[in-house]
Design a protein that fits this description.
This protein is an alpha/beta fold and 486 residues long. The protein is 33% helix and 17% strand. The strands form 4 sheets. Strands 1-16-15-14-13-12 form a 6-stranded mixed sheet. Strands 4-11-5-10 form a 4-stranded mixed sheet, with helices on both faces. A 4-stranded mixed sheet has the order 6-7-9-8. Helix 4 packs parallel to helix 7 (163-181).
């Protein structure tokens, strides 16, 4: 029985496979012969030591972080969701670095548009200090906003000698992973202000290639001047790049305006460009547009659960994190759209998931704890995790969308899950017998074959059942490598 791969997509392996497809002759005994690769690249190889490049302290590690698989998972939070069984929208609480890694298998090259609103690096905002070895532990520490010694980790002071480097190290892997998710004709929009817009452009020129730059939009963030600076800054920027500039990248056009929307536009200052209005931007735009034109757009929102400030209005209203505010805003937006358009068929729901460590215990014994570790390994699932937690980790590691339809099914004396019309069946009960295995085998038909089956590794009644389960399912058409244990 095959063990489930414990990590997210190994991007380095994927890149090597693509290189091998292009230049198979540069590989020797599994390693790259760079002299042969240089010969293949010919005159396109840069050999001059003095060349234009953008670098900073920590860039090499930022690149490694981008390609290091995640050991985490996303745990479902049904009670915090809206229309869980039918919605295809996702709201994920967690550090977007780890979340982007976990989404690589299922959503690689499938996203049409990405919008990122990162910390602007004003010296007061939250800048994540990623950990190459164990970013999940780092994330849990950061979301409490103190380190192990109780020192605050929420700001990146402009007095720091690595002020810009810290910000670039945070942004590089996230943008690199975001690019992987885009369709070939996909686009990305990134909000920023004066502090880092120059560095963001250079960073994106490297990751997306400068020929794929679309525009640097300017938007007015306030109508009044601020008195904190010698020169008042009333606007911010949105930097935009295409994944691949090609004829398939459609021109960005205005959305048709309804009479009701047009009524909100005025021209009190005789602007020669015509009517205008001040309008706040995220969060229910997709749902509203679907309700207006009958579209079927879907969204994936990622928000780190940064704590709301003590004494703030949000904290007084019992919103402990920014993520909780975001969920409530979307709920209210959905209710308003439903009230305005009672007959709408738009998807006004969202599934909530929360980033956490894997449900599967790590095997990391030491001489001093070997006996205890062996006892824990008998059941390798963490005690506070549910069958639903295990199921969604399986979907993530297999690279299946988190919005696939899931049905609870009776399998002999046990309960299991049928995913995607039975293409994957999971049963994480204890004491599984051949009766349960046969019930799964009976689900497989020529019209709707069962393609994968997943069990809890310690869930079988005995070793004979575990051994025979593979053969019984193989007779039903399930390949041996697709019978997996967690």
């Amino acid at each position: 029985m095959t063990p489930l791969t414990p990590t997210s997509l190994d991007i380095t392996s994927e890149n090597l496979a693509q290189l091998k497809a292009l230049f198979p002759n540069v590989f020797s005994e599994g390693k790259i012969d760079f002299d042969v690769l240089k010969a293949e690249l010919g005159e396109h190889l840069e050999t001059d030591g003095e060349r234009y490049q953008f670098t900073w302290n920590g860039k090499a590690q930022a690149k490694r972080i981008a390609t290091t698989p995640s050991m985490g998972t996303l745990r479902p939070a049904v009670d915090e969701s809206v229309n869980w069984d039918s919605t295809e929208n996702l709201y994920i609480e967690g550090d977007n670095l780890e979340v982007l890694k976990l989404l690589q298998k299922a959503y690689f090259g499938k996203v049409k548009m990405i919008y990122i609103d990162p910390p602007y690096n004003t010296g007061k905002d939250f800048v994540y200090k990623d950990d190459f070895k164990d970013n999940l532990s780092n994330y849990k520490r950061l979301t409490k906003q103190v380190d192990d010694e109780g020192n605050p980790l929420t700001t990146n002071s402009d007095s720091s000698g690595r002020y810009h480097s810290n910000w670039l190290n945070m942004m590089y892997p996230r943008l690199k992973l975001a690019r992987n998710l885009l369709l070939d004709d996909g686009v990305i929009f990134i909000s920023i202000d004066d502090n880092e817009v120059h560095n963001l452009r250079k960073l994106c020129d490297e990751i997306f290639w400068e020929d794929n730059f679309l525009a640097e939009f300017i938007w007015e963030k306030r109508t009044n001047r601020e008195n904190r600076k010698i020169v008042s800054s009333r606007h911010d920027y949105i930097v935009s790049y295409a994944k691949l500039m090609s004829p398939e990248v459609k021109p960005i056009t205005q959305i048709p305006m309804t009479d009701k929307a047009l009524a909100n536009y005025k021209n009190p200052d005789n602007d020669p460009n015509g009517l205008w209005k001040s309008d706040p931007a995220t969060a229910h735009a997709v749902m509203q547009l679907n309700a207006d034109d009958g579209g079927n757009r879907k969204f994936i929102l990622v928000q780190i659960p940064e704590a709301t400030p003590e004494g703030s209005e949000a904290r007084k209203e019992k919103y402990l994190t920014i993520a909780e505010i975001g969920k409530e805003r979307i709920r209210r937006a959905g209710r308003k759209i439903q009230a305005d358009k009672p007959d709408t068929k738009a998807d006004l729901g969202f599934k909530v998931f929360k980033l956490d460590t894997s449900n599967i215990k790590a095997w990391n014994p030491t001489p001093d704890t070997l006996q205890e570790d062996l006892l824990h390994a008998v059941d390798n699932i963490l005690v506070d995790r549910t069958d639903e937690d295990l199921l969604y980790e399986v979907l993530i590691k297999y690279g299946l969308p988190l919005t696939l339809p899931i049905e609870t099914v009776q399998l002999g004396q046990h309960t299991g899950f049928s995913v995607g019309m039975g293409s994957l069946v999971g049963c994480f009960a204890q004491g599984i017998t051949l009766e349960t295995v046969q019930a799964i085998a009976d689900m497989s038909t020529p019209e709707n074959p069962v393609l994968r089956v997943v069990f809890r590794d310690s869930g079988f009644a005995d070793d004979n059942v575990k051994t025979n389960a593979v053969q019984r399912l193989k007779q039903a058409g399930v390949r041996e490598e697709d019978v997996v244990s967690v």
